[in-house]
Amino acid sequence: MRTMNENKFMTVDPNTGPMEAAIKPLPFKAPNFIHSGIGGAAAGKKNRTWKNLKQILASERALPWQLNDPSYFNIEAPPSFKPAKKYSDISGLPANYTDPQSKLRFSSIEEFAYIRMLPSDVVTGYLALRKATSIVP
Hints:
two-stranded antiparallel ribbon, 5 strands, INO80 complex subunit C, transcription
């Protein structure tokens, strides 16, 4: 009967007892591998020193910046390809619906009923808040 203990094979004979066989090297381990240091995964790494915001700003001011170099204030981005999100004029929740009569956006049946009860001057005020150009007659 043979049993395996880590990478050693033990032969168990009922008459003589356990006998240790030759050590067989594991196929996935390199026999000449040596760890780079004691202390786990971060053994060979230097400790990172963190800079605070004042130090970062001071080091950026010292760099030779040109006038046309990009910064946070002059980066120009192209318009987004995604359509703008639409929100309800009443609750501010994401709106999937638009009232065809008043052009106000709403997200639930209760808001639709509320919009239909609003007078035209209040509807015009909601549209002005959204900066919508359509004016309700």
